Amino acid sequence: MERKLRIGIIGTGGIAGAHMHGYAQFEDVEVVAGADIVPGKARDFLDRHELTEAEAFESAAEMLANVELDGVSVCTYNTTHAECAIAALEAGVHVLCEKPMSFTLQEGVDMVRASRKSGKMLTIGFQPRYDYMRQKVDDIIGSGALGKVYYIQSGGGRRRGIPAGTFVDASKAGYGCLGDIGCYSIDECLHAVGYPKPLTVSAMATNHFGTNPKYWPDPENFQVDDFSVAFVRLEGDITFVFKQSWAMHADSLGDTLWLGTEGGIKILNSPTKRADLPSRVMYFTDVNGMHTDSFVLPSYPFNAYARPQFDNIFDQKMRAFCDAILEGGPAPVPGEEILMNQAICDGIYRSAMLGREVVIDIPEI
Ligand SMILES: NC(=O)c1ccc[n+]([C@@H]2O[C@H](COP(=O)([O-])OP(=O)(O)OC[C@H]3O[C@@H](n4cnc5c(N)ncnc54)[C@H](O)[C@@H]3O)[C@@H](O)[C@H]2O)c1
Predict the structure, then answer these.
(1) How far is the CA of 129 from the centre of ligand 1 (A)?
(2) What is the span of the domain harbouring residue 60?
(3) Is the CB of residue 38 below 6 angstroms from any atom belonging to ligand 1?
(4) What is the pLDDT of residues 143-174, one digit of tens each?
(5) Ligand 1 centroid to 47 CA: how many Å?
(6) Is the same domain home to 228 and 286?
(7) For residue range 21-72, what is the model confidence (pLDDT) as tens digits?
(8) How far is CA 120 from each of CA 34, 86, 324, rounded to the nearest angstrom?
(9) I need a labelling partner for 7 at 20 to 30 A (CA). Which of 25, 232, 315, 365 fits?
(10) 349 and 212 in one domain?
(11) Cα distance between residue 49 and residue 277, in whole Å
(12) Which residue is closest in CA terms to ligand 1's atom 14?
């Protein structure tokens, strides 16, 4: 067999295990190094995964200077994504960076600039992109079946789901539910329509649950949002209504919706509403003046066995990164595209802090 792809992992905490799970399955890939700023943590991680030969470091810079790598997974907390991704790109190494892309928009811009300058790939870890039904929704909307899309709203949200650890520490996570799961909602809603440029954002963010001992054990140290909403104007006369929660007194913040001049798509998010239905995804249109509503069902047109090679969407994320390195790109989830997502997160954060609408200004790359 030809030389295996050589991968390093920066940040060996929780999500690094999911990256390792993917890489460990690929015969053409080996994890040869890990780095974590907590002394001994990278060594423990590599040993736990029976990679006793792999080298462990206490900084990304040290790892990049001492080990020949093709790619790295950046699995650090949000506020250090940019410094680690940029260090790897400048060292000539391809980057798969966990979501959200970064904390500030400027960090995201710097990451894309570093990728352009080095000619190395920057891809962002949005594994829901590999979900089969998500891909079918993207296909339907991408086919133009909805006509001109003019309104999009995110839905879903958690009733009780505040994560522990670094997720609630503002110096490490930057954002709360906005950066943790809000960035997924934004990606789900806007990738389907080609990520129109955001123009303005008016947002609110609260933390009524994280700061209440009835709902969270350490309210004194809860430093981020657990709920946020925003009204976003997008280029092309599209309105985007965003909402996300880690905790609330409801089973859902509503359905995800794309409204177009010829049709609409709705993803049913309430667990009670969707219990007996054939699918969570509905398509609405008008045929000869008749309201015509249908469920979008999984279908495998020609070959019942032509299913995705890996059912685990996390594993598919790592496989797509490795394939892009082996085949010379493009990035599966390009940094340039996710800059629009980052611009919205940054705008929501700033608008909520300032208590007024903000203009989104994305610097030239
Ligand atoms: N894709 C997903 O489904 C998913 C799930 C969970 C977390 N995440 C993302 O993964 C990232 C990490 O989350 P986690 O739960 O693993 O956090 P974590 O706190 O468990 O792990 C982060 C690790 O990074 C290390 N680290 C921080 N800065 C570093 C630096 N400059 N150099 C080297 N190591 C550094 C920390 O010491 C820690 O061990 C976050 O951005 C989070 O949003 C993604």
Answers:
(1) 20
(2) 5-128+311-333
(3) yes
(4) 999 999 999 999 999 999 999 899 999 999 99
(5) 19
(6) yes
(7) 999 999 999 999 999 999 999 999 999 999 999 999 999 999 999 999 999 9
(8) 20, 10, 11
(9) 365
(10) yes
(11) 42
(12) 14
